[in-house]
């Protein structure tokens, strides 16, 4: 594969990792509605940074990291479940208002979303294993076949594809945000909170029942 093809393949991987509806998507949507485009986009970028880091691990074949994730999947999964539970409960208990968005966003709420999204992704063993599976499914792109500029091209593609998705998502939500009131914001916030709690409870319950998800 040429560098351009590797860059494009990486962008596809970035999109595949980012697009499916999950905790980070819900976080980005709710923060865009509450705080505006920048807050939602930055929340998505937190997930992008995590995906790019995972892509670099896969591309450069950092096997000790991969072995660590696989060997510690249960505690990592538990930590991820607790994180989702805490964030979900906090979302359901909050009472946000659109008219306070600018003031809250300027006080540090923007970066908080990005940090939360990063840890959501990094405490999900499935994200690391999914990234490895995507690399392995594309033939020439595997942990042993990439070096130097070739690996960098794939990793840059993952970052670009993921960033594109978060920009598009935040833009779409920003477009409809002006037409919505506090009632819609409360509904979205509560729905996102419920889904996060379900995700988190599912992760923890699977550990208690001895079900291996990853």
TrEMBL record:
<feature type="transmembrane region" description="Helical">
    <location>
        <begin position="115"/>
        <end position="139"/>
    </location>
</feature>
<feature type="transmembrane region" description="Helical">
    <location>
        <begin position="151"/>
        <end position="172"/>
    </location>
</feature>
<keyword id="KW-0812">Transmembrane</keyword>
<dbReference type="GO" id="GO:0015171">
    <property type="term" value="F:amino acid transmembrane transporter activity"/>
</dbReference>
<keyword id="KW-1003">Cell membrane</keyword>
<keyword id="KW-0472">Membrane</keyword>
<feature type="transmembrane region" description="Helical">
    <location>
        <begin position="42"/>
        <end position="66"/>
    </location>
</feature>
<keyword id="KW-1133">Transmembrane helix</keyword>
<feature type="transmembrane region" description="Helical">
    <location>
        <begin position="192"/>
        <end position="211"/>
    </location>
</feature>
<dbReference type="GO" id="GO:0005886">
    <property type="term" value="C:plasma membrane"/>
</dbReference>
<dbReference type="Pfam" id="PF01810">
    <property type="entry name" value="LysE"/>
</dbReference>
<feature type="transmembrane region" description="Helical">
    <location>
        <begin position="78"/>
        <end position="95"/>
    </location>
</feature>
<protein>
    <submittedName>
        <fullName>Threonine/homoserine/homoserine lactone efflux protein</fullName>
    </submittedName>
</protein>
<dbReference type="InterPro" id="IPR001123">
    <property type="entry name" value="LeuE-type"/>
</dbReference>
